[in-house]
Amino acid sequence: GQQVMQIPQYQHVQEGEDFTTYCNSSTTLSNIQWYKQRPGGHPVFLIQLVKSGEVKKQKRLTFQFGEAKKNSSLHITATQTTDVGTYFCAGPSGGYNKLIFGAGTRLAVHP
Amino acid sequence: NAGVTQTPKFRVLKTGQSMTLLCAQDMNHEYMYWYRQDPGMGLRLIHYSVGEGTTAKGEVPDGYNVSRLKKQNFLLGLESAAPSQTSVYFCASSYRHQIPQETQYFGPGTRLLVL
Question: CB of A99 within 8 Å of any CB in chain B?
Answer without folding.
Answer: yes
